[in-house]
Design a protein that fits this description.
Blueprint: E1 11-16, E2 31-32, E3 36-40, E4 43-47, E5 60-65, E6 67-74, H1 87-94, E7 95-100, E8 104-109, E9 120-126, E10 130-147, E11 153-160, E12 163-167, E13 170-171, E14 182-184, E15 193-194, E16 198-201, E17 211-217, E18 222-226, E19 238-241, E20 259-262, E21 265-267, E22 269-277, E23 281-283, E24 293-295, E25 301-309, H2 315-318, E26 326-333, E27 342-352, E28 365-372, E29 383-386
């Protein structure tokens, strides 16, 4: 590696897994537009508390992996009836994706535990210099936020299973013929690889698919790959991460055409935040350092806040917070134009009384906190709609 790797060179991809915590090949069309994305691998260690006649710490005992991820992205609708790039995340966090060609894409809740296809894989890469991957990822919280005049954004966070990483700079020490699966590296160069990243050897990239690292031996300075080498390597060949190209779709929504209705009455939107706590967790057993599957042991909770000007015509709606009534809240981000808008529909929201904010330089503002409830049937508390 010739120098520091700048964060501006990073790209991101997102894909639904077909089997939990198992790599699935990504393509350019799995790319997502990310404002900020972070993978935070962590292994928990417990300090030894042995009494052996000295105040010196005797060591650490390795525990579970506690990997976390987070990302932030613009809301980017594409063609009508075509799922957005963030579709796999929304399907995972909400539960069901319904595509009506040429009409709409809707995301609505489910109650069952996630199965195949409902965990996600997140990849971050920087050219030939750096590669990170999170297998078996799950979303714990997803927030949609819009401020007047600013582009609406989606942020999400959660945990994941296997962490993989590869850096450029591991040099081969011997000629490796085609058919070889154990590749010798320079001294300590095995430290450039963690988990099961995808790599290539100079220009030998397995026809563009790369080679998956299946084992790293730090004592022998070798990596084991699959499949076996198709070609061969020469002494001094760099081992690079494999980073595919990107194909992005959609256009970010602007922040000047957002609207909200409360109980069917249109009110001027200043700011809106909707947060979905998915109730998802990673489930471990006694023999696993990482989660082995996902489950939903707690309720899904949808909460938020809406800031509006307190106008006379709004009083009847905002006053419902005092009598334990529920009201439908419908948000639209973007213009009322097909393929350029994103909607959130919540048919039964309990409004909470919040003290209004007065300002000499501004009008009376009211912030309404709410919690979405079941309305007429199970799982009908929220719909996310691209149409």
């Amino acid at each position: 590696m010739s120098g520091p790797v700048p964060g501006l060179t990073r790209k991101f991809w997102l894909k639904a897994e077909t089997s939990y915590d198992t790599y699935i090949a990504i393509a350019a069309t799995d790319a997502i537009d990310v404002i900020e994305g972070i993978l935070e691998p962590e292994i928990e260690y417990e300090e030894m508390e042995s009494h052996v006649g000295t105040a010196s710490l005797q060591g650490h005992i390795e525990g579970n992996e506690a990997n976390k991820w987070s990302l932030e992205s613009y809301i980017m609708p594409g063609a009508v009836g075509v799922a957005p790039d963030l579709g796999p995340l929304l399907t995972h966090a909400i539960g069901a994706e319904t595509i009506v060609g040429g009409t709409s894409v809707t995301y609505e809740p489910i109650d069952t535990n996630p199965t195949a296809g409902l965990s996600i894989l997140i990849v971050a890469g920087a050219a030939n210099e750096y590669y990170e991957r999170a297998n078996g990822a799950w979303c714990e919280s997803l927030t949609i936020e819009a401020n007047q005049g600013e582009a609406p954004k989606i942020s999400a966070s959660g945990g994941y299973g296997l962490h993989s990483m590869a850096k450029q700079g591991a040099n081969g020490t011997a000629i490796e013929p085609g058919g070889e699966s154990v590749i010798a590296l320079d001294t300590k160069e095995a430290g450039c690889f963690v988990g099961e990243p995808l790599v290539k050897f100079d220009t030998e990239d397995n026809g563009g698919s790369g080679y998956q690292v299946t084992a790293v031996d730090h004592s022998a300075d070798t990596i084991t790959i699959t499949p076996v080498l198709a070609g061969g390597t020469e002494v001094g060949d760099l081992v690079h991460p494999v980073v595919v190209s990107q194909t992005l779709t959609g256009t970010p929504i602007n922040g000047v055409q957002n609207t909200v209705t409360i109980g069917g009455t249109s009110v001027g939107l200043i700011k809106a935040t909707v947060t979905i706590a998915t109730g998802l967790i990673g489930l471990r057993d006694g023999t696993s350092q990482r989660p082995i599957r996902l489950m939903r042991p707690t309720k899904r909770r949808i909460t938020g806040e809406i800031e509006i000007f307190e106008l006379v015509e709004n009083t009847l709606e905002t006053g419902q917070a005092w009598n334990n009534a529920t009201a439908a809240i419908n948000l639209q981000f973007g213009p009322a134009t097909a393929a350029a808008r994103f909607k959130i529909e919540m048919p039964a929201c309990k409004l909470k009384v919040v003290k209004p904010a007065w300002s000499d330089e501004d009008g009376l503002r009211m912030t309404l906190a709410f919690t979405a409830e079941q309305s007429a049937a199970a799982k009908d508390e929220i719909d996310l709609i691209f149409d």
